[in-house]
Amino acid sequence: MGAPSTAPAPSPPALPEASAPDDRAPPEPAAPELPPPLRLRCGVQQYEWGRRGAASLVARLSAADSAAEIDEARPYAELWMGTHPAAPSAVLPGGEPLGTWLARNPAALGPAVAARWAGDLPFLFKVLAVAKPLSIQAHPDKGLAELLHAMRPATYRDANHKPEMAIAVTDFRALFGFAGIQELKDVIRTVPEVAGLIGHEDADKLMTVKEYHGGNDVKSSLQSAFAKLMTASKEAVSEAVNKLKGRLNDESEIRTLTEKEELVLSLERQYPEDVGVLAALLFNYVKLSPGEAIYIGANEPHAYLSGECIECMATSDNVVRAGLTPKYRDVQTLCSMLTYKQIFPEILRGVPVQPYVRRYTPPTDEFEVDCCLLPPGEVVVMPPVPGPSIFLVMTGEGEVQADSMSDGEKAKEGDVFFVPAHTEVRLSASGHATMQLYRAGVNSRALYACNAAAAGKRSQLQNICEMAS
User: Fold this and answer.
1) The pLDDT of residue 212 is above 60
2) 432 labeled binding residue
């Protein structure tokens, strides 16, 4: 090493003396040894809208994993895979909550995820089996979630936002976002029961507004009309719904009802005299085939109607409801928080990332979902990523192998695995049927952006070290 300089120099933080110029950069920390994939036992939510008994995919997956007997009389609505305290997954065989295990093993999240999301899993992975429509609802953005949680923690139990994505497993039906202005005008013109509750002033504003006049005109008129409808008195709503039902039943004798009109009658049978029956006419009616998906951002109205899906979201259970539900309705909050956009949702179909694997990437950092359809006898390698993943075997059977495992783990329908960061997973299908498997993980764009930022900081520190030497 050369002699130290005698010229004056700045006083950087003291650094250990390096033995050679190439060793002056701070060494990369040694990667901690990570455990192999962990089997999880996952919680089931038995909400009343769920499919009952073995007709529910949730029940079949849960029973296949735990060998529990299915109660044919009970609804099986949601399978939760994650750390949310309302139904945390447990690590097998001991049953320790996954969140507790992660607190002891933060390296399994990867440094970027552990730092950004305070040592917790940022996504909640679900399977839904919908027999009866869920409430008309929206999920608050981060700022509103924090405010609602502070004001009413018993109702809004966490302070996180809840962007979500639903991938259809069967034919899936939903309401999502407001219909275009022409469709809304048709409703006002042809559905007097809705126009009457909105009132002449707001109905006239919507009938005269033009799309090319700008979004603010439409938004203001739509917000005022929707608020009038949703805050109408119980008696007025009951009278309007019953009139609409009677009129449509009469008209069905002389003409074919539209899909929306058939939907309204179906909703009325399940939620009689509910304002949500009328509100459904103002929303887009979305029909997904298996493999198709929609992303639902903050403050967008929606309601799942029927079918089964894979769902992934930020780790939250914040729901603001206003119709089609016996639960608490926060109508004022819902009406004030919505975006009032009038765009039919983009239908996502996934992008191939390798043979047998398609990826669904939403515009949020917390999650992405891969769908793997692996024919018998085939193998696919899921490359390591710098964040955690949860794998669900939906159908079929095979084997899961990771570098950290001495032997492969058998994988069958209903099995759920937590896979630590930086773990390569080799999947092989056996038997006579295709193995269908879903992986939820942190959005790759966010992961690699975090890693690039971390690399930039390391490079900056290296430059400081070189200048100091």
Assistant:
1) no
2) no
Active site residues: 321
Q: Is 332 annotated to bind ligand?
A: no
- Cα–Cα distances in Å, from 3 out to 22, 257, 466? 17, 92, 15
CATH number for the domain spanning 361: value is: 2.60.120.10
Query: Residue 216's domain is classified under what CATH number?
Result: 1.10.441.10
For the stretch 288-312, pLDDT in tens is: 999 999 999 999 999 999 999 999 9
Q: What six digits make up the tokens of 469?
A: 């030497």
Residue 275: CB atoms within 10 Å: 25
Cα–Cα dist 433/377, whole Å = 10
Q: Cα separation of 158 and 186, whole Å?
A: 40
Q: Which of 353, 365, 346, 348 is nearest to 446 (CA)?
A: 365
- 427: helix, strand or coil: strand
Among 80, 11, 32, 18, which Cα is nearest to 416's? 80
List CB contacts of 240: < 8 A, sequence separation 6 or more: 193, 194, 196, 197, 232, 278
Q: How many folded domains does the chain comprise?
A: 2
Question: From its phi and psi, is residue 465 left (phi > 0), alpha (psi between -120 and 50) or beta?
Answer: alpha
User: pTM to 2 decimals?
Assistant: 0.88
Neighbouring residues of 418: CB distance < 8 A, sequence distance ≥ 6:
37, 38, 40, 89, 91, 98, 108, 388, 389, 390
Is 58 part of a structural domain of the chain?
A: no
Which is nearest to 144 in space by CA: 323, 339, 392? 339
Statement: residue 6 has pLDDT above 60: no
Model pLDDT for residues 25-41, shown as the tens digit of each residue: 445 455 567 788 999 99
- For 381-433, what is each residue's pLDDT tens digit? 999 999 999 999 999 999 999 976 767 889 999 999 999 999 999 999 998 99
Is 302 annotated as contributing to ligand binding? yes
The answer on 324 and 189 residing in a single domain is yes
Residue 137 assigned to a binding site: yes
Q: How many CB atoms lie within 10 A of CB 213?
A: 10
